[in-house]
Amino acid sequence: MAITLTAWYASIASPSGIPERHQLNKTNAPDLNLLIVLDALLSENSVARAAKALGLSSSALSRSLARLRATTGDQLLVRAGRDLVPTPRALELRAQVRALVDGAHAVLCPCNSADLGELERTFSIRANEGFVDTFGAELIALVTATAPNVRLRFAPKPDKNVEALRTGAVDLEVGVVGHTGPELRVQALFRDRFIGVVRADHPLAGEHVTPHRYASFGHISVSRRGQVSGPIDNLLETLRLQRTVAAVVSSFPAALSLARDSNLIANVPERQTRKSRGGMLSFTLPVLTTTLTISQIWHPRFDNDPAHRWLRSCLRLVCANQESSLYDVGAAEP
User: Fold this and answer.
1) What is the CATH number of domain 5-108?
2) 169, 299 in Cβ contact below 8 A?
3) Please, where are the H alpha helices in the chain?
4) CB 3.0 to 4.6 Å from 173: which of 50, 60, 126, 234, for a disulfide?
5) Could you report how far apart the first and last alpha carbons of the chain are, in Å?
6) Phi-psi region for residue 290, left (φ > 0), alpha (ψ -120 to 50) or beta?
């Protein structure tokens, strides 16, 4: 809701509107609250009208005028018949005081928009390689089309530690939400699921993939921490099956690269590897895995930052534009 000029003046200029601990109280420091009063007096040339504009009493304005005269060493406004007229010193100060008050107003009022055409800023986004590979190019194109001087720095995501968000080293993080801490903001972008991916002429091509056939081939495990087993192994165990993990890699693109040139099976998130699976075969896993919710995460210091809000909206738009599609085994993906 917009702040009216009268309410803003009153909240700043009224002696009862500002806690004493927040006012300047050094012996030789000027009372900056008097600038608001002086601006009103020089605009109205009337104690009564200035008091009305500020929501104060005429007696309070008269006392403030006396303090202004003592502070500046000038009468500022003197009587001419029934009116008050500014002194030469007051005329000199009028434009300067107006500029100072306008500047204070700009600082204290909410900033609801950013000049994207003139914005020069580097945003650091922490995301895994699969996300950058799938969504990065479209996000960059959307951002630079509106804000040509904005740069995106994609940072690696070695773990789920959110300290970089708290310190400001990272502006935005994208991924599955772990333990974030209560103060961080989270917004879902899309849902994803794990699928199996093999090379085009894999022995599984054209088959209905059963749990037994699935477990009979070697697999590639993806783990930033080098873990061999995971949820898929637990699900196979309930069926009295066990797979062989032939390799462990740290990223989904690396897993797909290995699967492309071997008989190994890569288990990867569908949407985040869409562009990396060209010419390969995908199939629904024969065990029921948990659906993933991919979110963007940020620190609340950026809640009302117009440029950061705009970046978050760009990310939402890019993710919404790319629809999920799953190809049956036996048909290569484009």
Assistant:
1) 1.10.10.10
2) no
3) 5-13, 33-44, 47-54, 58-72, 88-108, 129-146, 163-167, 211-216, 231-238, 252-260, 306-321
4) 126
5) 51
6) beta
Cα–Cα nearest to 41, from 77, 71, 7, 72: 77
Query: Mean pLDDT over all residues of the chain?
Result: 84
d(C-alpha 180, C-alpha 85), whole Å: 62
Distance of alpha carbon 150 from its chain centroid, rounded?
14
- Angle of helix 252-260 relative to helix 129-146, nearest 10 degrees, comes to 120
Q: How far apart are CA 314 and CA 298, in angstroms?
A: 15
Residue 274: Cβ within 10 Å count: 19
Higher pLDDT, residue 111 or 83: 83
Token pair 């708290």 is at which residue? 166
CB-based contact 260:197 (threshold 8 Å): no
Q: How confident is the model at residue 66 (pLDDT cuts 50, 70, 90)?
A: very high
Tokens 């204290």, residue? 108
The answer to whether 294 and 189 have CB atoms below 8 angstroms apart is yes
pLDDT tier at 334, thresholds 50, 70, 90: very low
| Strands 121-126 and 83-86, bridge-based pairing | unpaired
Q: What architecture does CATH give domain 116-334?
A: 3-Layer(aba) Sandwich (3.40)
DSSP 14: -
Angle between helix axes 5-13 and 47-54 (nearest 10 degrees) is: 100
The CA-CA-CA angle for residues 11, 15, 16, to 5°, reads: 75
Q: Report pLDDT digits (tens) over 228-252.
A: 888 999 999 999 999 999 999 989 9
Does the structure show a pLDDT above 80 at 326? no
Q: What is the DSSP letter of 253?
A: H
Q: Where are the domains of the chain?
A: 5-108, 116-334
What is the band of 157 on the pLDDT scale with cuts at 50, 70, 90? confident
Query: Between residues 162 and 186, which one has the greater pLDDT?
Result: 186
